[in-house]
Amino acid sequence: MQNIIPWSISFLAFLVALMTYLRNGRNDSMKDRAEHEARMESLKESILKANMKLDQLCAISTETRADIKALNQSLIDMDKRLSSVEEGLKTAFHRIDELREEIRHGMDKG
What we know:
Oligomer: single chain
Helix content: over 70%
Strand content: under 5%
Number of strands: 0
Radius of gyration: 47 Å
Mean pLDDT: 89
Structural class: mainly alpha
C-alpha cells in the first residue's frame, strides 16, 4: 500500500506532463499554422501586386506600340510628300532651265 501512493503521484505527474506537452504541441502547431497562413497571405498579396504591375506594363507597352505605329505611318506620309515635293522641284528647275534657254534665244535673235 505504501508503494501505491508514490506510484499514483508519479503517474499523475506523468499525465500532467504529457497533457502539458500535448497542449503546448497543439499550440505550437496552431502558431505555426497561423504563421504559415500569414506568410501565404503576404505571398498572395505580393503576387497580386506583381500581377497589377505587369498589367500596367502591358497596357503601357500596348500604348507605346500604337504610338510607334502612328509615328511610322506619319513618316511614310511625310516620305510620300517629300518625294512629291522633290519631283515638283525637279520639274520646276527643268522648266526654269527651259525658260532661260528661251530667253537666251530671244535675246540672241533680238
